[in-house]
Structure to design on (150 residues):
């Protein structure tokens, strides 16, 4: 997991990827995962906001030089496992530029109204993500089934 010390570097990475970051706080970092190089440079992150058994997946970002090597997929899968293990059953997200990426990972487009009130009242839903952003969701129960299958 990320630590409070990661906040500045996470915000810088998100700014560089043109993703919203102004609403993040030190407290947000307890539900962020990060990836660093051997020299300590932050090159990837992903965050989660919780609302009961639903979650808002946000801020998935990989620095341009580190892309296309599986890091984005790895961060996404790690966050899905973390979310499921801590009580989240369905993930929602908003994206303006990566809907094809998320579709290839099992997410399907849905109406914003499908998200529970706790997700719809998040800063991403109410303000910082444009209305034109695509809302997508994934039921994490499928991960549980595949985990127990022989
Ligand atoms: C989306 C992102 C996290 C992917 O990271 P990554 O480390 O390059 O991803 P991976 O290496 O695991 O996967 C690469 C695959 O995803 C596809 N992909 C990457 N970005 C994509 C995008 N924006 N739209 C569609 N497909 C995309 C690649 O074509 C590649 O496909 P392939 O496996 O069929 O060749 C990265 O491009 C990024 O940070 N983008 C800017 C921020 C963003 O849009 N985040 C999502 C909104 S929350």
């Amino acid at each position: 997991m990320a630590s409070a010390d990661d906040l500045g570097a996470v915000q810088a990475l998100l700014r560089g990827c043109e993703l919203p970051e102004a609403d993040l706080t030190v407290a947000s970092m307890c539900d962020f995962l990060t990836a660093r190089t051997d020299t300590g440079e932050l090159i990837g992150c992903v965050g989660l906001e919780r609302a009961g058994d639903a979650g808002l997946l946000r801020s998935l970002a990989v620095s341009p030089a580190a892309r296309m090597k599986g890091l984005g997929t790895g961060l996404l899968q790690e966050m899905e496992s973390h979310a499921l293990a801590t009580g989240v059953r369905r993930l929602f997200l908003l994206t303006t530029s990566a809907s094809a990426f998320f579709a290839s990972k099992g997410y399907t487009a849905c109406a914003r109204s499908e998200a529970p009130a706790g997700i719809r009242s998040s800063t991403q839903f109410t303000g910082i993500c444009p209305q034109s952003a695509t809302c997508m969701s994934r039921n994490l129960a499928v991960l549980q089934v595949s985990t127990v299958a022989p």
